[in-house]
Amino acid sequence: MRAQFVLSEIGVGLRRNLTMTFAVVVSVALSLALFGGSLLMSDQVSTMKGYWYDKVNVSIFLCNKSDAESDPNCAKGAVTAEQKDQIKSDLGKMSVVDKIAYESADQAYKHYKEQFGDSPLASSLTPDQMQESYRIKLKDPEKYQVIATAFDGRDGVQSVQDQKGILDNLFGLLNGMNWAARAVMAMMLVVALMLIVNTVRVSAFSRRRETGIMRLVGASGFYIQAPFIMEAAVAGLIGGGVACGFLVVARYFIIDHGLALSEKLNLINFIGWDAVLTKLPLILATSLLMPALAAFFALRKYLKV
Fold first, then answer.
1. What's the DSSP call for residue 257?
2. CA 142 to the chain's CA centroid
3. d(CA 19, CA 27)
4. 219 burial class (0-12, 13-18, 19+ CB within 10 angstroms)?
5. At 43, phi and psi to the nearest 5?
6. What is the pLDDT of residues 113-138, one digit of tens each?
7. Distance CA 34, CA 248 (A)
8. Please, what is the Cα angle at 127 between 125 and 131, to 5 degrees?
9. Is the full-model pTM beyond 0.85?
10. How far is CA 243 from CA 98, 118, 171, 239, 288, in A?
């Protein structure tokens, strides 16, 4: 009988404050969708880091005849065969080095033509203007400075470049966007909590006579609070369900179908469905507990009848 009463009171409260309940559902849905989206963005950045950092190389570019005339780092002339052998030998002795690949000037010219053959500059370049280089794959991409310290400024070395630096700029941008989404999410959560508190207070005020009578006849505080808390929890849970739907639909249409980014951007290793599905229980739990706790604290003064 008590459970039936509580459930009937929940239905009455939701219908009586339909507009505010709808506002709670929408605000909770948007804030938790942003919350889930920020978690997935973090997973995506981590996945991309693991994928790309494993592929980045440190490049040691060697001096050629053109550099000897124009680059201060190559003032002693083009790299010699002995210098190349010494560089390769020293690289092989370093514990941080995983693999070493040599690229000749002809190979560099061929790769440039394949990638930038339509560029106006390509027609004016010749193989002897391209630089020889060693491409080094590190066991730990964070150890770039070890290579730079050992070879930067050495005779025959024009420059030491780390591809990780380029990726760091990209990941910095993605992380900045992620933090911006989290800031918007925090504001939406505050709005949602304010709406929940106001909705509960309006509902409690409109039923203050009933709650007063229940208090006078000996009803417990929890029994009086339960309908209001569950109203907020139900509205929040509906919003959480909508947020989960947003994430599933977004993953389906943006990555798999519709925009189909997984087919158009083959170089990006996108997160899978497992990452999305593991976030849904957290979102639903948050959508249930957050409104319930907000309602509990908002109702304390209305029990003092």
1. S
2. 21
3. 12
4. middle
5. -65, -40
6. 776 666 666 667 777 778 889 988 88
7. 13
8. 100
9. no
10. 45, 46, 26, 6, 13
